[in-house]
Amino acid sequence: MYDLIIIGSGPAGYVAAIRAGQVGLKTAIIEKNVIGGMCLNWGCIPSKSMMESVKLYQRIVKDSARFGIEGIDRKAVSFNWSKAVKRADTIVKRLTGGVEFLLKKNGVDIIIGEAKIVSANSVLADNRLLETRNIIIATGSSSQKIQNQIEGLVVEPKKLFTEREVPQNIVVLGKTPVAIELGQLFSMMDRNVTIVSDSSLIMPKADSYVRNYMAARLKKEKIDIIYNVSITSTENIWNEGILNLSGKEVPCDIIINAGDRKGNLIKSDIDIEVENGYIKVDDDCETSVKGIFAVGDVNGVSMFAHIGSAQGLHVINKLKGIEAKLDISKLPMNMYTVPEAAQIGLTEDELKEGNYDYKVSEFPLSANGKAQTEGAAEGFVRILSDNKIGEVLGVQIVSQNATDMINEAAAYIQLESTVYDIAHTVHTHPTVSEVFMEAGFEAVDQAIHK
User: Fold this and answer.
1) Is 293 found in the same domain as 202?
2) Region for 418 from its dihedrals, namely left if φ exceeds 0, alpha if ψ lies in -120 to 50, beta otherwise
3) Taking Cα atoms as reference points, which of 175, 169, 145 lies closest to residue 157?
């Protein structure tokens, strides 16, 4: 008899499993593919590795002379996709091996096979019926399939980062930050990129200020965006390298399907409520069946790995009798664009809808000494604060390292800090993080270097 069986070993599942082992719960984790799930094996880690490779390529080609480096023949420099993929694979193997080690170290049984929920207290896997007190479903999500595919035309994210010839004309289907990231990745490899959004916008969950900034950035990079077009089938819209989208002809050698995703629903002999393609959960991530929880992408609350991990930890705390509220609004949202973007708390649109009395304080990276020396002075820190007491309500960052910098803002939000706290937090000099202090001063009175 297990205390807990976890189905799926991505960041939501394996983090919950490790923590469960640490607090003394007899735990098993079931994985039908490979440890680490989509994020470690095919998504977050390989994509960020590839992005770093192409960023370095860009710096060598475009910025080396500006930094005083001579003797580089730009025409002789090229980007080798296959070698960059091999580097990414090495990183993936190192990390997934580390996760497997940690699971075993904390006494978690690893079972390779496809799981089926037989009852609220039993799971079938690897031809064994396993009894358990609780179940966590952490099976992730998948992109929605495009129908009537022409062979070789459509590539799913799971199969993107493999050794291949990268053609010249690339269409990225999707509107999320992942779609934008992939579009920029290939554009920085000197490919022609078109992004196709089925909406009137991109990055729908981003603050509109950030969203508009990135749309302008893509235009500057000559990445075309086609709005309000949905591709559900390739039938009759592609012919000899041309994609016909609502009368507009787009050069297209390959379509990368980074469109909306749906939860990977599990086989089950009992009825677990599903809503809009995801397992429905309450505020504690519990499903309609008591004792069965769903964390990560599969519940549709968020598509971010760190939020899935936070949900997994929250469930383990609940199983150990620790009552707490998991406030998703106080968890950061990372967007691995170029430059990176990140945000936390309420957006300005939400403040307007809620009739908040608020103030916007912004400080540009162009006024920061460290950002200038690094040649990465594009972007800003933007603080939304309450006018009455100065509480920090939301933060948005666009910068080279926004996804790291946002964690300082997360601490402010968690502690319900005010702009006075930020202004009085001395930051070392010269550092890019000084922009927080400057934005705090801007909210209180006036920034020092603005």
Assistant:
1) no
2) beta
3) 145
Residues 423 and 404 in one domain: yes
Task: Round to whole Å and give the CA distance between 228 and 213.
Answer: 20
Question: CB neighbours (10 Å) of residue 269?
Answer: 10
Residues 206 and 284 in one domain: no
pLDDT digit string (tens) for 397-410?
999 999 999 999 99
| 151, HSE (Cβ side, Cα atoms, 13 Å) | 0
Same domain, 290 and 323: yes
Tell me, yes or no, whether 89 and 237 share the same domain.
Answer: no
Domain span at residue 69 reads: 2-142+262-329
Same domain? For 175 and 243 the reply is yes
- Scan for tokens 């003797």, then name that residue: 71
Residue 450 lies in a domain: no
pLDDT tens, residue by residue, 334-373: 999 999 999 999 999 999 999 999 999 999 999 999 999 9
What is the layout of strands, in order, in the sheet containing 248-251? 238-239, 242-245, 248-251
At 243-279, the pLDDT tens digits run 999 889 999 999 999 999 999 999 999 999 999 999 9
